[in-house]
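Treating backbone geometry as a discrete language has practical consequences that deserve illustration. Part of our work consisted of pairing the sequence of a single chain with a tokenised description of its backbone. What the numbers capture is local backbone geometry rather than side-chain detail. For completeness, the protein is quoted in full, as a sequence line and a line of structure tokens:
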Amino acid sequence: MSETNDNNRDRVKAERHQQRQQKVKEAVDARVAAASDERGVLMVITGNGKGKSTAGFGTVTRAVGHGKSAAVVQFIKGGWECGERNLLQTVGVPFVVMNTGFTWETQNREQDMVACEQTWLPAEKMLADPGIDLVLLDELTYMVAYHYLDLDRVLTALKNRPSHQHVIITGRGCHRSIIELADTVSEVQPIKHAFDAGVKAQPGFDY
């Protein structure tokens, strides 16, 4: 008798689970059906946590895997060797690299502003090129925050890009105007970081 009761309870649980999952499926299917607009997405990955650039590069790799064309512009960290760049350049992804390293290393605002301008000019051309499906503007947020780049100039380039072109912007402290313009915004927040425990940045994992 006890075994029969257990079987009945299990059957009721299974039926209730199936009913709940069916409702979830119906809700998801409805949202998928309603999302019929197909156009370029502006995505911002910001916050103080680790992994913003890594996420951006992951999407570039995904795009290339689907036969899409992608381009990358790197601000701030250009002086470092970059594993993603080493790989993606071999499959034809063009890179523009500011190549001055971190601003606290250069300690030269005028030099950084010149380097930023030299990097942004080809970025503007990429943002106007209908042949590029995805542009990653890695660490662009700092250029706006430090006033190396005029905000309106950046917003204009983003608004006027080809309608199908996706753009990903990474970096801390993204300006609210860019966030408002964006379609998707993700905030990466730190909980723990190995560097705080004295573990140095390592090639193949951190860069």
Q: What stands out?
A: The radius of gyration is 22 Å. The longest strand covers residues 42-46. The mean pLDDT is 88. The helical segments are 2-34, 52-65, 83-88, 103-106, 109-127, 140-145, 151-159, 176-181.
